[in-house]
Write the structure tokens for this entry.
Amino acid sequence: SAVISQKPSRDICQRGTSLTIQCQVDSQVTMMFWYRQQPGQSLTLIATANQGSEATYESGFVIDKFPISRPNLTFSTLTVSNMSPEDSSIYLCSVARGLTDTQYFGPGTRLTVL
Amino acid sequence: GENVEQHPSTLSVQEGDSAVIKCTYSDSASNYFPWYKQELGKRPQLIIDIRSNVGEKKDQRIAVTLNKTAKHFSLHITETQPEDSAVYFCAASNSRIQGAQKLVFGQGTRLTINP
């Protein structure tokens, strides 16, 4: 499986600010995804990060709130904009090498919004 | 869209006994069913997966069974050990975005192995 890293690993932010989370993979992958895991809950897909085009968002998630970039096949960013305490969650990226390949998760970013 | 239900939400078994976690899905077009294990403070780790052309798959103490007609699949852990204690998530994939498997997760099962 690929080696996946995320930065930052955790952060505490003030209401109304924005945070950009980075996801780096050690080799080229076809697909990159961003998930949210609220405290004690399951994983919910936010969007698929598409290389060279706009991300594909799931129902309930919008680009203005969660802008995503994917400049190449090994890197993606997720920004959580205009944060509120309800955005306190773990944000995880996942990757898949091929179109039908298994997804592997990054270590996650634990975000607390005060 | 797809909906995945997972039961039970918590499960406690004695070390050495077997544990079974069950999931049902709603979309008959779903064709990929992975299981992830998440230890406290860690990332979800894939432990086993199954595709819709197979009814059962086994890897040492872990097995997954799939019943496409009933739209349910189950995780079986035999000879449980304390290190099996974790939260387990099932997932189902029902659509393809540019060919990718998009996962919908169950609610999770907190498994505790009692020594």
